[in-house]
Amino acid sequence: MSDHLHHHCGRFRTSPLTRREMLGTVGGGFGLLAFNALFGRETLAESLLSTVGGGDARSLLATHIPARARSVIFLYMDGGPSQVDTFDPKPRLVDLDGKPFPMQIAPTQFNNNGSTLPSPWKFARHGQAGHEVSTLFPHIAKVADELCVIRSMTSDFSEHTNANYFLHTGSGIAGRPSMGAWSSYGLGSDNQDLPGFVVIDGGLIPPGGLDCFGGGFLPARFQGSVMHAQGDAIADATPSDSPDEQARKRALIARLDSRYAHDTGAESIESAIRNHELAYRMQSSVPELAALDGESDETKALYGFDAPDAATRTYARECCLARRLVDRGVRFVEVTCPKTIGDRWDQHGDLKAGHEANARAVDQPIAALLIDLRRRGLLDSTLVVWSAEFGRTPFAQGTNGRDHNPFGFTIWMAGGGVRAGAVIGATDEFGYRAVDKPYKIHDLHATMMHLMGVDHRRLTFRSGGRDMRLTDVHGNLIEDAIG
Questions:
Q1: Mean pLDDT, the chain, as a whole number?
Q2: What is the DSSP string of 193-239?
Q3: How many CA atoms lie within 13 A of 213 on its CB side?
């Protein structure tokens, strides 16, 4: 180039790259290296599988420790079922029926505290393990031997929104990644045509909203994707454009996104590109996934597709869809509650009617889910968790309700490497506070991750100058729950 051309005008001279621009440009090369490594791993997996004659690639993925569970189905009991009315019987409450509660009462959500309130339901032992289950759950009682019941769970929060954030993200405030997002981030999905984390919406989004399922500071592609049990599983999943029109639009979007990412170094664009590509693939995978009419008549009857109660029918579809998702390699599935005549499980009044409506909605479908997973050979590799954000008081709110109780409540797990038939921990004689082996939500998260092959202390993401994790600086394994 001549000196004349080179020095003609400074305004047309190429400006030198700033340090940020240089790192952003070079960073694209590192991204390609990462993609190449992932592509190579998948190719190796396919090669090995063709050699050994079957199986799936998930068994080839390295984890911190040997994984017992490949997927999680989290059955979220929105509002807080009462432990003393479900899986933790307390005969002493009968002796004190209508009398002042004998223990010191901590501040409650509404403080309209009444007398000691025994359970209006009877308990009986079921299965070889002899699990004590109330008459609220006649179907779950039949699969009691699959359950590992933990009667000593506690929470740090007594208000729904903060307790929901704590249950889902390990923090009582909004903005942290959900346990499902952490699972997807750490382990990915075994199906490239479906998200790694799916939330099945039965009609009730929990207090705290979609932040309960969010990705927080993790890349956006790891947040929960919401599917619906009724109608279209995902809105607009069926394209209106022809395949050629779609291809042209996708190519244009990809060019624009790539150019913007190159010019700005915005990391969020990478997630947007991946989400566009996943959405395109889901146009084929989701309609097939949601085609529950293809299930056998026996399977539909098992779940309760034709049950008299509309909420049972909704939850039956949710549980069946959850089974289909894990069967296709989705890593984490959360199942929310359907709408009933009551207010979730949150019975501050009219406990009997409200708890019976909610139990009627979920009992048969949950039992069917465990049976169906077992007979398809999926239960041993699927961790099923039944939990709410807290429990309820053993004394009345008003005359016939119960207030929130974070001091001691019951959850259970099944499948996925847990010790079936176990009963772990205990509350006091009234079911108010955990007194033997008390555990926190951090311990539940640590145990869930452990069963999936992940050391919760080593699954971290750098944010705000700190290596963040689901369990923060807390979390111990519930050793007695691990089979």
A1: 85
A2: TS-SEEEEESB-PPTTGGGGG--TTS-GGGSPEEEESSS-SSTT-S-
A3: 23
Report the distance separating Cα 322 and Cα 370, nearest Å.
Answer: 11
- The letter for the amino acid at 164 is N
Amino acid letter for position 395 = F
Rounded average pLDDT over 202-214 = 94
Q: Which residue shows structure tokens 């600086």?
A: 473
pLDDT tens for residues 125-168? 999 999 999 999 999 999 999 999 999 999 999 999 999 999 99
CA distance 208 to 218: 19
The DSSP element (H or E) to which 426 belongs, if any, is strand 426-427
Written as six digits, the tokens of 373 are 């997973």
Secondary structure class of 427 (helix, strand, coil)? strand
With a CB cutoff of 8 Å and minimum separation 6, the contacts of 324 are 289, 292
Q: DSSP 3-state assignment of 355? A: helix
pTM: 0.83
Beta bridge partners of 396: 402
Q: What is the pLDDT of residue 270?
A: 63
What count of residues does the chain have? 483
Residue 60 CA to residue 56 CA, distance in Å, equals 8
Helix H or strand E encompassing 181:
helix 179-187
Could you tell me where the DSSP H helices lie in 290-435?
297-303, 310-327, 351-375
Are 420 and 148 contacting, i.e. CB atoms less than 8 angstroms apart? yes
Nearest residue to 345 (alpha-carbon basis) of 324, 359, 333: 359
Q: Is pLDDT of 347 > 50? A: yes
**Residues 468-482 pLDDT 10s:** 999 999 999 999 999
Q: What is the mean pLDDT of residues 36-42?
A: 39
Report how far residue 316's alpha carbon sits from residue 302's, in angstroms, rounded to the nearest whole number: 9
Alpha-carbon distance of 81 to 354, in angstroms, equals 10
Nearest to 138 by CA among 423, 359, 335, 420: 359
Closest CA to 414 of 235, 149, 226: 149
